[in-house]
Amino acid sequence: MENQNNLELSEQAVAGLRESAKWSTFLAILGFIGIGFMVLGAIFAGIAMSALPADPYGSGLNPFGAIKGFIPLIYLVFAAIYFFPVLYLYKYAKGMKDALNFQNSNTLSDAFVQLGKHHKFLGIMTIVMISLYLIIVVGAVAFFASMAGSM
Q1: Is residue 82 a contact partner of residue 34, using CB atoms and an 8 Å limit?
Q2: Calpha distance 20→96 (Å, rounded)
Q3: Tens of pLDDT along 66-110?
Q4: Is the sign of the CA dihedral 45, 46, 52, 53 positive or negative?
Q5: At what angle do helices 70-102 and 105-149 cross, to 10 degrees?
Q6: Which residues are CB-neighbours of 104 under 8 A, at least 6 positions away?
Q7: How far is the C-alpha of 27 from the C-alpha of 86, rounded, in Å?
Q8: Are 75 and 41 in contact (CB under 8 A)?
Q9: Cα–Cα distance measured from residue 61 to residue 127, given in angstroms and rounded to the nearest whole number
Q10: pLDDT over threshold 50, residue 1
Q11: pLDDT tens digit string along 5-56?
């Protein structure tokens, strides 16, 4: 005996999904443009940082000189991290448009899988950022407590 579930979408649901796909496409395109600006920023930061002298005062105490090579790398890492949720959002939007235009259930399923990946990525990144903030706050409190105790 075969158990087959069919899901039918109302016109209101189709219109909502179509609208969601349009806005997702818009946001994904803006995301790709933002990633392009991050890569350009990394290139320009690398050029600008290489033009700076390593230690302008000759004191050996220039902390900026030690990290100037990492700034372009940081831009590129953020661009790479940002790329994946934008790609998932774009794939969702394209898949949703195709699914609604051709009334294809498999394409609709694939689009929702991409949307799920997008949300999962954002959720994990949110957890990571909250964890980092907590670590920073605890570290700052411990640092200032130790500084206050040594006075």
Answers
A1: yes
A2: 9
A3: 677 788 999 999 999 999 999 999 999 999 999 999 999 999 999
A4: positive
A5: 150
A6: 98
A7: 8
A8: yes
A9: 36
A10: no
A11: 677 889 999 999 999 999 999 999 999 999 999 999 999 998 988 777 666 5
SS3 of residue 109 by DSSP: helix
Token representation of residue 16: 């909502």
- In one-letter notation, the amino acid at residue 28 is A
| 115: nearest Cα among 137, 142, 87 | 87
pLDDT for residue 2: 53
Structure tokens of 70?
């990492």
The structure tokens listed for 22 are 């349009």
Please state the length of the chain: 151
Closest C-alpha among 90, 120, 111, 88 to residue 24: 90
CA distance 111 to 32: 19
Q: Round to whole Å and give the CA distance between 22 and 124.
A: 25
Q: Answer for the pair 39, 75: CB distance below 8 angstroms, yes or no.
A: yes
Q: Which residue from 82, 91, 92 is spatially nearest to 31, judged by alpha carbons? A: 82
Mean pLDDT score, 127-149: 95
